[in-house]
Amino acid sequence: MLGLSWMHRSAWIALVAGAGGCQMLNPAFGLDSVTDGDGSTAGVSASAAPTEPVLTTSSDPTGTTDSGTSVGPDATASSEPQLTTTGVDTDDTGVDPSAPAGCGNGVPEAGEECDDGDGVDENDCTNACKAAVCGDGIVHVGLEQCDAGGQPSDACNQSCTFFTCGDGNLDPGEACDDGNAELFDGCTPGCQLTCNDGVFEPDREECDPSVVPFANFLGLCSDECELETCFRMTNTGDQDFVEPGWFDDCAEADGQRIAVLLRDQQGVKYLQAGKKTGFGEWGPDHMTSTAQPGEQWKLAKHDRKVPLADLLSDNPDPGPEFDVLYAFGADTAPKMQDAATCPSSLGDGYALAIVPNTDPNRARVLLMPFEGGSMARNLGGWLAAGPAVELAFSGEPMALCAANDPLVPFLGTVAVAVF
User: Fold this and answer.
1) CB 3.0-4.6 Å disulfide test: which of 72, 117, 207, 212 passes with 221?
2) What ranges does the record list as Low complexity composition bias (predicted)?
3) For the chain, first and last CA: distance in Å?
4) What is the per-residue pLDDT for 234?
5) What whole-number distance in Å separates Cα of residue 5 and Cα of residue 224?
6) Which DSSP string corresponds to 357-412?
7) Cβ-contact 29, 10 below 8 angstroms
């Protein structure tokens, strides 16, 4: 009886030792003992329960039943098929009935992508011996947050993660989702659109073409609520001007107005615009001054300075205390005998200076390379502040020439538009 094996949890075996040898009695397979009138066991009735298969053994392929019927490879003792055992209890392991034969035995075989034999459907190998994939309808622990099985869902996206603002997927309830927390790109960190909504939000957009005064300034504000600029730079602690012709596009641009914007991650800090004087006559050599290059460094020589109106206020018209824009040409340079005179270096190559109308010796905004066209800038506190002062801004105007009152670097974006 070596090699006897079967797979049924309710099976039991009785071994009877006697002079006639060893006999197996198993009511679970329809083999009941036959008793004589005196109650003694006489043998086994093969017809007692013909609905169950006959148990065969691997040690005696040509054995016989007690009734003398031969049981071999081609013979059975009843009308039921032989019971073939595999050593796997499908009731206990939970193997998917559609799985390939042998699935669940822990050995990857033909037709299986994997086989871990653990009966767990939620890991990286399913009970159908398939590798876990997003969209198979099973939430695989540690691999997915959810799995809608490829069906539409209000909670689970196609990447098998819960809908989350900022994941780059346009989910229910989101007007946009660009996958970042940038404020000035048309999509808020809360996945809502702010552009063209009739409200100008300086903490989220540079402008809004649906709002006055931007709606009245054709060519100033894009449909993405970004200033249409001829120059744009983000000022850092390093030198950020890379070439001396940085203002060429603005100096040569057609347009009656000029606007200057400053913003950082918290929002727009400065946005003012004004009408150019002498429209059509601007160029790299002559912008707000018609004087010769050697004279343009003098603020008094700027005969076309631009009064600016604050576009951040409810009233964009210039009030009694407005700012004034000075734009210095590409070839502007002081005479050598004036080079040490402050603020002569305002005019050493392209530069912008915005000063209060009431005090031209103090600056609201300064925009110029750290190095001029032929010399370093020599404004008060300019060299001491280092390269970051290429862009300086302060709510309180800064002294141009007082070394003990240094200029305030602005680390953020500056943009100039001509429209």
Assistant:
1) 207
2) 56-74
3) 101
4) 96
5) 76
6) TT-TTEEEEEE--SB-SSSB---TTHHHH-GGGGEEEEEEEEESS-TTS---B--S
7) no
**Both structure tokens of 378:** 């020599």
Cβ-count burial 246-261 (b if 16+ within 10 Å, e if not): bbbebbebebebbbbb
The per-residue pLDDT for 316 is 62
Q: Give the Å distances, CA to CA, from 339 to 31, 61, 342, 375, 382.
A: 119, 115, 8, 9, 15
Task: List, in order, residues 6 or more apart from 212 with CB less than 8 Å away.
Answer: none
* 168: phi then psi, degrees, rounded to nearest 5: 85, -5
Q: Which residue has the tokens 């206990």?
A: 92
Q: Where are the domains of the chain?
A: 1-85, 229-418
The closest of 409, 372, 407, 403 to 388, measured between CA atoms, is 409
pLDDT at 327: 97
Which pLDDT score, from 0 to 100, does residue 300 have? 93
pLDDT tens-digit series, residues 258-288: 999 999 989 999 999 999 988 778 999 999 9
Residue 86 in 3-state DSSP?
Answer: coil
SS3 215: helix
Give every CB contact of residue 230 below 8 A, 6+ residues apart in sequence.
249, 250, 253, 416, 417, 418
At 77, which amino acid appears?
A
Q: C-alpha distances in angstroms, 299 versus 103, 290, 295, 352, 356? A: 88, 12, 9, 12, 13
Residues of the chain short of pLDDT 50, as ranges, are 1-91
CA atoms of 86 and 64, how far apart (whole Å) = 24
Structure tokens at 414: 């500056």
Here the tokens at position 387 are 């390269």
Please tell me the predicted confidence (pLDDT) of residue 214: 95
CA–CA dist 107, 116 (Å, integer): 7
How far is residue 346's CA from residue 339's CA, in Å, rounded to a whole number?
10
Structure confidence at residue 336 (pLDDT): 86
- Which one, of 393, 387, 389, lies nearest residue 354 by Cα? 393
